[in-house]
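Have a close read of this protein, sequence plus structure tokens, and explain what the tokens say about the fold. Thanks in advance:
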Amino acid sequence: MARSVAAAADQMRDWPGLSQPFDDTVTVLLAPNRAIFDSLTNGRLPEWGAAGAFPASNTLVLRLDERPLEVLPHEMAHLALHSNIPHPPLWFSEGYAVWAAGEWGRMEVLRVNLALVVGKVPNFSELSRQLREGRTRASSAYALASTVLAQLNDVDGENGMRRLLDAYRETGNLDAALRSTFLTTLDQFEESWMKRIDQRYGWLSLFTSFGVFWIVVGGGVGALWLKRRRRDDVRRADLDQGWEMPEDRDELD
């Protein structure tokens, strides 16, 4: 497995939007179980984590019991991005890793996880916080973060993304990079992204609202039916008092 991971990592040099290949030396540690993984990462990662990237030392820690070859592209994307942009916000870093690694399965969470879109679409700060919450909420947050990078890529394709990341590397400021590349501020882009997500997936909230409505209606009808049945049972019991069944007659041919 160590040889397979090393060979795969060695092929991951070119990343979308990054002008220069990622040729830095990377150290990969393979942890056979959760306990050793926690000791190697000093318990800094969520309990559901399968891997961790530490850009300052270009080190990856992968769990052998959590499909290391599958999570490797995501973690390598972190190192590649951070080699160009040292301190991007968490939502940007995770969104880039999901998008650049082609983890479209995570993006599909948006279509099946109703908890993702019920209520208000999170802003970028809230998105970063949700990325460190429980597995379900974090899974949704990863999917949402990837749509941020996908929307940036939609503006002018990979060429636009490359110009944005070059500007981000030079200035160290995402707002300044967006202004010079796409003529928009970070706040304006955040607002447009939130609107786009609401328009694209808001129907799930509507569906959920109708579902809750019919559950409430069905529960109310069921309660009324039970109440009516109990009342009828009492009436039948009162009518049966004092009645005697007649003796059986001879059957007719």
Q: What stands out?
A: Residues 86-232 form one domain. The chain has two domains: 1-84, 86-232.
